[in-house]
């Protein structure tokens, strides 16, 4: 009789397999859904989020005004730094998940952005966008909802344009939230200095 693994050892593997299958199914559902009104906008948003350009632009606008607005900008930029470094220097190198396969006969090639060469997990774009929103919000509450919606849109755009699985985006959002929490905790303890914006 062939050896069988104990149920307690098999269950985690079964769960991971099922989650991967669900992740793949969600990705494929997006790829075959026609959304011509969204394709161009999401492609441009995804490209504009490269290297956190949108977030840095918003941070620059916030930094023009002294006080809470400038402090929020500084916290957001710091959170981007933590999230980006963690996602790209740690997460992608540890997990090394391949990027999604985009078939040459894809029904909607016009929505695609260039496929990055880095690993897929986690989504660095999402991590940085969520980190910025989560760090800026507590310091400048009026920006909480707009930046949160923008971060969600950036995350979805990475799936829509074919460069990430939904699971990558979820992991990026969790990482971004943790990065913002780390920066906010450091700032509250006085261990974070942000001289780039002239903030104590």
Can you give me a brief rundown of this structure?
With 200 residues, the chain is mainly alpha-helical.
What does this structure look like?
- It is globular and about 50 Å long.
- It is built from 7 helices and no strands.
- The termini are far apart.
- With 200 residues, it is mainly α.
- 40% of the residues are buried.
- Helix 6 packs antiparallel against helix 7 (166-188).
- The longest helix is centred in the middle third of the chain and has 28 residues, at 68-95.
- The protein has helices spanning 7-31, 36-48, 53-63, 68-95, 124-139, 144-160, 166-188.
Keywords for this entry:
200 residues, mainly alpha, globular
Count the beta strands: 0
> What is the arithmetic mean of pLDDT?
91
User: Helical residue percent?
Assistant: 55-70%
Order of helices and strands: HHHHHHH
The computed structural class is mainly alpha
Count helical runs.
Answer: 7
CA-atom Rg in angstroms: 19 Å
Question: Main β-sheet, in a few words?
Answer: none
Shape: globular
- Give the terminus-to-terminus CA distance: 70 Å
Strand percentage lies at: under 5%
Q: Return residue spans where pLDDT drops below 50 for at least 5 consecutive residues.
A: none
Record the SSE blueprint:
Layout: H1 7-31, H2 36-48, H3 53-63, H4 68-95, H5 124-139, H6 144-160, H7 166-188
Helix pairs in contact: 2-6, 3-4, 4-5, 4-7, 5-6, 5-7, 6-7
């Amino acid at each position: 009789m062939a050896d069988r693994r104990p149920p307690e050892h098999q269950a985690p593997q079964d769960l991971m397999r099922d989650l991967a299958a669900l992740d793949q199914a969600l990705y494929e559902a997006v790829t075959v859904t026609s959304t011509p009104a969204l394709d161009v906008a999401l492609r441009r948003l995804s490209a504009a989020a490269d290297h956190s350009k949108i977030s840095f632009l918003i941070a620059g606008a916030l930094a023009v005004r002294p006080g809470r607005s400038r402090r929020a900008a500084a916290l957001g930029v710091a959170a981007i730094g933590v999230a980006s470094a963690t996602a790209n220097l740690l997460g992608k190198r540890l997990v090394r998940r391949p990027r999604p396969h985009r078939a040459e006969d894809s029904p909607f090639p016009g929505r695609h952005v260039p496929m990055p060469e880095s690993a897929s997990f986690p989504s660095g774009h999402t991590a940085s966008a969520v980190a910025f929103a989560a760090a800026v919000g507590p310091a400048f509450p009026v920006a909480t909802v707009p930046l949160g919606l923008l971060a969600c849109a950036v995350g979805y755009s990475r799936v829509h344009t074919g460069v990430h699985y939904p699971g990558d985006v979820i992991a990026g959002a969790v990482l971004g939230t943790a990065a913002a929490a780390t920066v906010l905790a450091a700032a509250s303890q006085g261990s974070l200095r942000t001289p780039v914006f002239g903030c104590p």
